[in-house]
Each structure stands twice: as C-alpha cells, then as structure tokens.
Amino acid sequence: MARPSAGMVSDNVPENTDLKRRGLMLVLSSPSGAGKTTISRKLLDADQQIRMSVSVTTRPMRPGEVDGKDYHFTTREEFDRMVEAGEFLEYAEVFGNHYGTPRAQIEQGLESGQDFLFDIDWQGTQTLRQEMGDDVVPVFLLPPSVDELRQRLTSRSTDSTDVINARMERARDEISHWDAYGYVLINDDIDECFGQVGQILSAERLRRERQTGLIEFARELMKPEG
Description:
Oligomer: single chain
CATH class: Alpha Beta
Largest sheet: 5 strands, parallel
Helix content: 25-40%
Order of helices and strands: EEHEEEHEEHEHEHHEHEH
CATH topology: Rossmann fold
Distance between the termini: 28 Å
C-alpha cells in the first residue's frame, strides 16, 4: 500500500507511520493440460513481486537443474528428519519421490512482504490453508471442455494412448475438487485467463488484513486536529 508523499502529508497524518504489506501465497492448481504451467511462467516473468516457492525433494537432480533454484535436493533420511521436526508446511509422495514446502522460508518471506507462487494439488492446498489460513489464495484452472483437454494432451505427442487415458482419469479426479478453491477460472483463452489471475493477485494484495500498520495509521487520522 503506497504512502502519501511528504508534500501531501497534512498535520494530522503521521509522516513516520510504517505501512507495509504482508505477503501472500498464490496457489495455482489444475489438471495436466489446463494451462497451469504456462500461466505460472507468464506470471513470474511479468511480476517481480512474486517468486516460485522452492520445494525440498528427494528425487534425483535432472540435467540443467540448479539446487536451490529448481528444488532443494536432499536425501530421504534428511527429508524424514525435517518431517519429524515439523519443518514443512505440507509434504507429499509423488511417484515414489517426496516433496515438501519449507516452513521457515515461507513464513520469513511473508513477514517481509514477499509473495509466493505454488504449483501443488488440492491435497497440498488444503494442508496449506489449514496451516496458513488467509495467507493462501487458492485458484483452480479448468479446461473449457473434456474434448479440448484431451486434444491438448494428445498434441504434445510425447505420451502413448494408455498414458493419455490415465492422465484423463486423473484429471477427472482432480477436477472433482474444484469447489474447494476460492477462485475458479475456465482457461479457454490463455491470455484472458492470465489477465484474470493478475486481477485476483492485485485485489488480494490490497486486502485490509494484509496491510500491517493500518490500524495505527487509521487511528492517527481520526485524532482531533489542534
């Protein structure tokens, strides 16, 4: 939230009022093929105030990946220790590998006004909301139709028919949890959907609950003059 410039401050508006914003956790969830990855990349490129949450994982590092940027790579033993110590906001096993969101990194970032982007499923989203409450802004992306979703998966030309059918079945399960999200968008046009995500982010940043120091600022404004 922007403060008035020095030249606009009247006698009953304190010049030293510390108005800051608490960060937020923007979650984008969708079935594979609904455009989540594309929109996430566009958002990170366009908005310097938000960055991707970097998860801890036990899976091997792939060529081109950077430890600390793509993931925090660790051993299964260290991951289990972090679970026992309560160092994750949420964690899950996916195809035999473990992934977790480091608590300290997020909590410290939010306190300093940093926004985070999360690419997690509905179960991870529910856990984050239980842990962090209104810090979480959950957005679910839906494809415009089943036929369009299948076409998007098929056009990749990387998976067999059996794999595509399995992805479609998993997509139906993921879509069944759409009503657990505060915002639900239909991604019929990628640019329009991206614009809607941006509008949600802008509005959520302005929520009264995120403006730290606002109570004191308002009290000073209400004091009698003289």
